[in-house]
């Protein structure tokens, strides 16, 4: 049976955080009640080790967020496209950051499915996860990484995945419409290094032509 103590601890920590914020800055939380205007949309991985607000020392209201397994942006994904549309048209985001991270379990599973992971790695994805990660598995296969050391192969796939997702975002209707209308939206590709805490820019930022 799941431990209720785990859930109770979350609520306890929430209460402590709320009390601390109200004591140090009593007007902050009531201000959030009036709306949001973050300038960055962060499209990242659902991995618990890469929380965007924590690793950038940001506060509620600073970052608009969409996270999923292996930081994907599928062209046909209504959820991702809806978030991108809302971020640009309603919230007013000026930057879209695709953020991968080292030691990504989704990327590792795709390496395994492509036959490029060591025998000790977790098995390849199945079911819904397999369908979701199919484009990443295809990318892993195309990169022919079996001859590389495991760490290098995984790093290569993680970085190439970010590059592909940046291209997918740039080719999306919401970005195309924003650029056509003169909105200065920039699309970035970053890597968060889990073991060091460093956020690394891949230098592939795209803006309107």
From TrEMBL:
Cofactor: binding comment: Binds 1 zinc ion per subunit.
Keyword Lyase: yes
Enzyme Commission designation: 4.2.1.1
Recorded superkingdom: Eukaryota
Catalytic activity reported: hydrogencarbonate + H(+) = CO2 + H2O
Sequence positions that bind Zn(2+): 45, 47, 101, 104
Record carries keyword Transmembrane: no
Cofactor(s) required for function per UniProt: Zn(2+)
One Gene Ontology term from the biological process aspect of the record: cellular response to oxidative stress
Role according to the record: Reversible hydration of carbon dioxide.
PANTHER family (UniProt xref): CARBONIC ANHYDRASE
Family affiliation: Belongs to the beta-class carbonic anhydrase family.
Protein name per the record: Carbonic anhydrase
Organism: Coniophora puteana (strain RWD-64-598)
């Amino acid at each position: 049976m799941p431990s209720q103590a785990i859930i109770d601890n979350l609520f306890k920590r929430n209460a402590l955080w709320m009390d601390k914020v109200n004591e140090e800055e009593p007007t902050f939380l009531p201000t959030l009640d009036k709306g949001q205007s973050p300038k960055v949309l962060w499209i990242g991985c659902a991995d618990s080790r890469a929380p965007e607000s924590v690793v950038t020392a940001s506060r509620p209201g600073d970052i608009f967020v969409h996270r999923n397994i292996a930081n994907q942006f599928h062209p046909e994904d209504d959820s991702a496209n809806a978030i991108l549309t809302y971020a640009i048209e309603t919230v007013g985001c000026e930057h879209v950051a695709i953020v991968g991270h080292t030691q990504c379990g989704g990327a590792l599973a795709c390496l395994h499915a492509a036959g490029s992971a060591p025998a000790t790695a977790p098995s390849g994805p199945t079911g819904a996860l397999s369908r979701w990660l199919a484009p990443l598995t295809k990318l892993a296969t195309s990169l022919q990484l079996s001859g590389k050391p495991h760490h290098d192969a995984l790093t290569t796939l993680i970085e190439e995945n970010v590059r592909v997702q940046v291209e997918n975002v740039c080719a999306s209707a919401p970005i195309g419409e924003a650029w056509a209308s003169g909105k200065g939206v920039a699309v970035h590709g970053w890597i968060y290094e889990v073991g060091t805490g460093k956020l690394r820019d891949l230098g592939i930022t795209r803006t309107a032509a």
